[in-house]
Design brief:
Elements lengths: L10 H23 L15 H4 L16 E7 L3 H19 L6 E8 L13 E3 L14 H12 L6 E5 L3 E3 L12 E3 L11 H4 L21 E4 H20 L1 H7 L3 H12 L4 E3 L4 E2 L12 E3 L4 E3 L13 E3 L26 H16 L3 H6 L1
């Protein structure tokens, strides 16, 4: 996949730093959340043979009886997150009722604002508390804590979970891609454990094994057994908070810090991942939808009058979710002008058409977008 870069000492000293960090954030969290503290190194399960082979790319769909999974999306409650959730939930429902959608079970928006909003009757919602100590200017830090609360408190009848995000559009029905105790995940080119080994060893000690046990993933999209996620989630939360408090990790990982937190937690608990490059695409770098299940519209799509990509520079025609941080997008977003559609990637045109189809179907979108 062609892609643009994403803008995001001695062993005894390392062990002392780890011990100090664990004491600090375990004391901070256990007093308010009822969580188990992050386990000591000797308490973690060792990696299985299946986990050791986690870097296998390829298809591993369902076999035999259906294995339904529950789709969960975390959201802050901002206008920006909310309109994306509404669009995402529309396409989730379309995919679930389409042929092949039989393994797509329930859906939950995990709203980590601490209070319900006006859309709880439209979208199945679990209200989670934000971190009591605040997100330190990094709103995504609330995500692991929100998952911990949901797993501990909600009734989830499915035995598998798909962790997704508001800016995911489901293009076609998703089967349960996990297999043999391994999760199914998308490999991100910018998650580079080997490149960041020095920093990661603060959180993934050498006795856990080679740094290559950490897969190049985030928590989303991931399909995982519910029991595995229940073990991973508190560790993911604790490690993400510890990374945010660590100047070296915070500087190295930036906006993708909690993605590294999840990847490390998954490796610590011996949960391997089948890496699916076709799990999702990311326009404008992926030009075709192809066999993908999800369009992830995290990047801006800007083009000049000739249909040439002008990434990081506003183009003559554009779609960028960041245009709609304060107000939702209107219905009928403009498609590329006459003469350009064949020059602009099919993935981008499909993305805008699907946003338009969703907003046309969701009642009262015009008044909603008008604010």
């Amino acid at each position: 996949m062609a892609a643009a870069p994403c803008g995001r000492g001695a062993l005894p000293l390392v062990l002392v730093a780890i011990a100090a960090a664990l004491l600090t954030y375990n004391a901070l969290l256990s007093s308010r959340s009822g969580l188990l503290p992050l386990a000591s190194s000797s308490s973690f399960p060792t990696a299985t043979a299946a986990a050791a082979s986690s870097r296998r790319f390829g298809a591993a769909g369902s076999a035999g009886r259906p294995r339904p999974f529950h789709t969960a999306v975390t959201a802050s409650g901002s206008v920006y997150n909310t309109w994306q959730c509404r669009v995402m939930y529309h396409w989730f429902k379309e995919a679930r009722r389409a042929p092949g959608g039989g393994e797509m079970g329930g859906f939950t928006r995990i709203l980590h604002s601490g209070k319900p909003d006006e859309f709880v009757d439209e979208i199945p919602t679990f209200v989670a508390d934000p971190l009591a100590e605040g997100d330190q200017g990094y709103i995504v830090l609330n995500r692991p804590w929100a998952f911990v609360q949901w797993i501990q408190k909600a009734y989830i009848k499915e035995e598998y979970i798909l962790m997704a995000e508001p800016d995911h559009i489901i293009v076609k029905p998703i089967p349960n891609l996990s297999r043999d105790g391994r999760a199914a995940a998308f490999p991100f080119f910018y998650i580079e454990p080997e490149k960041n080994e020095k920093v990661l060893r603060k959180f993934f000690p050498e006795d856990k094994g080679p740094i290559t046990k950490i897969d190049p993933i985030g928590n989303s999209p991931v399909i995982i057994e519910k029991g595995s996620l229940a073990r991973i989630a508190p560790t993911w939360m604790n490690i993400s908070i510890a990374m945010k408090k660590d100047p070296d990790a915070d500087k190295a990982f930036g906006w993708v810090l909690e993605m590294y937190g999840y990847a490390v937690a998954s490796a610590i608990h011996g949960v391997g991942n089948i890496l699916h490059k076709d799990f999702m695409i990311q326009p404008p770098w992926d030009l075709e939808v192809g066999d993908a299940f999800i369009i992830h519209y995290t990047y801006g799509c800007d083009y000049d009058k000739e249909g040439k990509l002008t990434y990081a520079k506003i183009g003559a025609w554009r779609f960028d979710k960041r245009q709609y941080t304060e107000k939702p997008p209107p219905r009928n977003l403009p498609l590329p002008p006459d003469g350009l559609p064949n020059r602009i990637p099919q993935s981008v045109v499909t993305l805008v058409k699907m946003v338009n189809e969703a907003t046309a179907s969701i009642p009262n979108w015009d008044s909603y977008a008008a604010g």
